[in-house]
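Ligand-bound model needed. (5S)-5-amino-3-OXO-hexanoic acid.
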Amino acid sequence: MATNGKVIITCAVTGAIHTPTMTPYLPITPDEITAAALGAAEAGASILHLHARNPENGKPDQSPEGFAKFLSRIKQNTNAVLNITTGGSPFMKVEERVLPAAQFKPEVASLNMGSMNFGLFHLADKYKTFKFDWEKPQLEASRDLVFRNSFKDIEYVLETCYDNGTRFEFECYDTSHLYNLAHFADRGLVKAPFFVQSVFGLLGGTGTHPEDVQHMKRTADRLFGSDYRWSVLGAGSSQLRIAAQAAALGGNVRVGIEDSIWAGKGKLAETNAEQVTLVRKIIEGMGLSVATPDEAREILSLKG
Ligand SMILES: C[C@H](N)CC(=O)CC(=O)O
Ligand SMILES: [Zn+2]
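Prediction:
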């Protein structure tokens, strides 16, 4: 894992999992998403993972129009790498999910490497009332939700984005997803270095125990050797612990309110920048340093 002591921080500023009732600090409007992204970049994030939301009620919005309301403003005000989701919301079909990346041809787009149960229903139990009427039914509907990423779906995203020079943040929620990535590498449909974003703690995927992290890394080392750049995200309260373990193992990290609403035990993160600053302190405390956007481009061989 040749990142020469440089750690890439990705910040996922809003996502499609958390809902407005869960935290008053969830960026929803184009202005809030823009400010969150620029604040995270200022704090040290070199990659910004972006989703859009309906500004009225915070519902995930995967329309190119929704992204157009903030993308150019962010691009004009930071050198950070923009990473557009093709995961959208797990309730959406791949044809809809790929549209913004296909239209805006970003340097990076996320690509989910396998189908899985995607449990969010347990989050609903914590709240008695909800701000918006879509929240509770959607969270409870996840009891029967399969986040579909068939081999055909993955091929469809690859074919749709490949000629745009877009490279991928390969979301791997379990070691089977690493084998799916190896399958596409064997077919020459993806190009090294592979930016592997291993996801820990999503109900339906792998857990957050240090052995789960070790197992994911050992498996990726065996499958990809020096052809990959490892990054991790820990869902919920595991975020900083998973990041610390991975950074110590030479990995890169992802934080952001998409993945966790917390900034330390029982404290809601008031900004994405707050989480970036917390993880940066851990990284620099270990004697490592944070990669700049251009260093991240070099490490990941991005089109720039
Ligand atoms: C666990 C994360 N929500 C994974 C994710 O960010 C998926 C995507 O946007 O494609
Ligand atoms: Zn995402």
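The chain has one domain: 6-300.
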